[in-house]
Amino acid sequence: MYKLFRYAIFQMDAEKAHDFTLQCLKMTAHPLFYPLFKSLIDAPKGLSKTVMGINFSNLVGLAAGADKNGEAIDGFGMLGLGFIEVGTVTPFAQDGNAKPRQFRLIEAEGIINHNGFNNKGIDYLIENVKNTHYKGVIGINIGKNKWTPLERGKDDYIFCLNKAYNYAGYITVNISSPNTPDLRQLQYGDYFDDLLKEIKSRQSVLAKQYNKYVPIVVKIAPDLNDAELVQIADGLIRHKIDGVIATNTTISRDNVTGLKYSEQEGGLSGKPLQYKSTAIIKRLHEELQGRIPIIGCGGIDSVSDAQAKMNVGATLLQIYSGLIYHGPKLVAELIRNIK
After folding, report:
1. What is the 3-state secondary structure of the chain?
2. Annotated binding residues for FMN
3. Interval 20-51: pLDDT, tens
């Protein structure tokens, strides 16, 4: 059934297909249609695990970017996902970069996006999170507005943190998207230390205010060299960050050279990112030595790749592009088989 659906939506522009799919997922969560669609989807229960003090019903989650505004949480939840990360969301709504900005590299099962944090703002997302019936863990991925100067970037993250804290299972600090100018500089040096210091300080205040501890996770790029990765690991440990997502999309085109759309600007996800993200997880795990859990993300399209990420140090997993190419069946296979 999904093969027919995929064939149809692949005739559409990638972003229009994405928007159409979100509308379909929203519709499946409607009380009139939910029982029917629920009966058509095989959503098994998997291995539960407590990570960052949170109980995850299974190890498989949805990566940020699929549902930027939290509009289809219930629909995605119906697939059986143990956790759903919404966003990236910024303090104020922004249109993102010029269209077209999403491109499928079908031969390689890859996707390039140059979205630029297009979203409807933190307040809109929070209202959707408040109204969801999904019982799993919801992560909220936060970023900075494009027009905010880098030296004031931390202000945007604190703004979003304040808004999201009481409604999130965990909060992800996205400093690794390649589609917002200079954003990745926040992964380095004084910018990195200053941001993490401010985030943790505010987390402490909010924990007392709401009488609960909401973990902070940092999402990193796959394009880091060894020295940069060591520096990031050191910063994560020193600032007592609760978790790390490895990885975001890549600016490398090594595995897709010559393919249609391969020269488009943006971050590449999907199968071409598979081994690169696994290598980052492995090296990061060597540095962290289990002190901080790693959420493995990047090119997961099969049980074998998912297990490879677990074997080198991932504690949880996130999918997105693999879901586009392989459909809900992939979710069920991963939940059943990952150890």
Report:
1. CHHHHHHHHCCCCHHHHHHHHHHHHHHHCCCCCHHHHHHHCCCCCCCCEEECCEEECCCEEECCCCCCCCCCHHHHHCCCCCEEEEEEECCCCECCCCCCCEEEEHHHCEEEECCCCCECCHHHHHHHHHCCCCCCEEEEEECCCCCCCHHHHHHHHHHHHHHHHHHCCEEEEECCCCCCCCHHHHHCHHHHHHHHHHHHHHHHHHHHHHCCCCCEEEEECCCCCHHHHHHHHHHHHHCCCCEEEECCCECCCCCCCCCCCCCCCCEEEEHHHHHHHHHHHHHHHHHHCCCCCEEEECCCCCHHHHHHHHHCCEEEEEECHHHHHHCHHHHHHHHHHCC
2. 64-68, 88, 141, 174, 219, 247, 270, 299, 320-321
3. 999 989 988 777 777 767 666 667 788 899 99
